[in-house]
Amino acid sequence: MPQQPTFSYTTVTGYFLQSEAATVAQNFDYASTNFGLIDRPYKSDVLAEETRTQWQRFEHEVQRLNDTAGEGVVYKVLYMGRHGQGVHNVAEARYGREEWDRLYASLPGDAHGHWTDAHLTPTGVQQALAARAFWRHQIVSARTPAPQTHLTSPLYRCLETADLTFANLFEEEEEEEKEDLDLDLNQLLLPTEAEDDHRRGRRRRRRRPPYAYAPVVKELLREVLGVHTCNRRSPLSALRRAFPHFRFEASMAEEDELWSATHRETDGELDARMRRLLDDVFGGGDNDDDDAAATFVSFTSHSGAICSLLRVLGHREFRLVTGGVLAVLVRAERQ
User: Helices marked H in 68-111 — which ranges?
Assistant: First the structure.
C-alpha cells in the first residue's frame, strides 16, 4: 500500500514575486530582486520595525503566522536551489533534447566526457560560487534568515553545489576581520577618535547572525529516476569519501536501488516521491526532528525535482536555470 500523505500543502501568495501569476518566470532574476520578496507591510509590523530590513520584517511575519496558526498547521520558507551546470547539461545542449532523450541520455558518456552521476562543469562551479556570494550579501546586508537546515540530493552535482555555496560561507569575512585586528594592534600611532569610530562602524556592518552548515543528504530529493544515467547515484561509500562532512540518511543503501535502466519515473510517481520527502521534512521523519523544527530550510536539488515540489505545493509552474534559487512560503496542515 502506498504511504498516505501526512500533510496537505499550500503555497502562501502575496509575499514573493515568483509565487504571483503576473510575474514572468523567464525574466525573473532572484539575485536582483531580493529573492523576489515583495516590499509590503505586514500584520506583524510595529513602529520599531521601520529601521529593519524587509527580510527582518518578513521573518517576524512568519513567526506571527506560526504563533497564531491552528493546531497541526506550520509555516516554513523553502529555499529551493538548482545545482550548477553539469556535464550532462552540456551534452544535452550539444545533441538537442530529442536526440538526448532518444539515445545519449542512456549512455554513460561520449568522447567529451562521462555523465553517469554527472559532476559540475567549470561553468557550474562558477554558478555555485555566484550563489555563494549572493547568499553572503543577503545574510549580512539584507538580513535574510540563513537556512537552519541544509538538505541536498545525493547526486554528485548537488553535493558539489551545496558545498561550494554554503560551506565556510563567512570564512573570507573572518580572515578580513583578523587582518583588521592585526592592523589595529600593530598601529604605531593611536587612531584618532574619528578613525576609531570608523573601524568600529566597519566591524558593526560585518556583524552577522550565527550560521551553521551541517548538510543532510536526502535520497528522495534526487532527480527523475530511471534510464538517464546522469541521475544514477554513485555508491554510498564513494560519496562518503568525497564528502565526509555530509550526513547521509541511515536508510540509504550502498548501491542505487531506486534507479532503473528500463523504467523512467512518471510525473505522478515523481510527485508522490516529493510528497513523501515533504512529509519527512515537515514531520521530522527518519528519527530526526531538526527538519521539523527548522522554519527556513534549504533544498539543493534538480530542475525536474523542483518542478515536482512546486506542483505538490500548489505553486505556479516556475523553471529554474542551473544555479538558480527560488524561495517559497509554505503552509502545511497535518491530516
Answer: 87-95, 97-102
Query: Catalytic residue at 223?
Result: yes
pLDDT tens digits along 69-95: 999 999 999 999 999 999 999 999 999
Residue of 160 and 285 predicted with greater confidence: 160
Max CA distance (Å), the chain:
77
Distance, CA of 220 to CA of 273 (rounded, Å): 6
How many Å apart are CA 212 and CA 195, to the nearest integer?
Answer: 33
d(CA 325, CA 313): 16
Tens digit of each residue's pLDDT (9 = 90 or more) over 120-144: 999 999 999 999 999 999 999 999 9
Q: What is the pLDDT of residues 231-240, one digit of tens each?
A: 999 999 999 9
| Residue 308, C-beta contacts closer than 8 angstroms, at least 6 positions apart | 267, 270, 271, 273, 274
Report residue 49: phi and psi, to 5°. Answer: -75, -10
**Got the DSSP string for 115-130?**
-TTPPBPHHHHHHHHH
Q: What angle do CA 117, 233, 168 make, to 5 degrees?
A: 75
Q: Which of 92, 219, 223, 265 is catalytic?
A: 223
* CA distance linking residue 8 with residue 27, whole number of Å: 30
User: Confidence class of residue 285 from pLDDT cuts 50, 70 and 90?
Assistant: low
Find the catalytic residue in 59, 83, 92, 219.
83
Q: Is 303 exposed, middle or buried (0-12, 13-18, 19+ CB in 10 A)?
A: middle
The residue to which cell 547515484 is assigned: 233
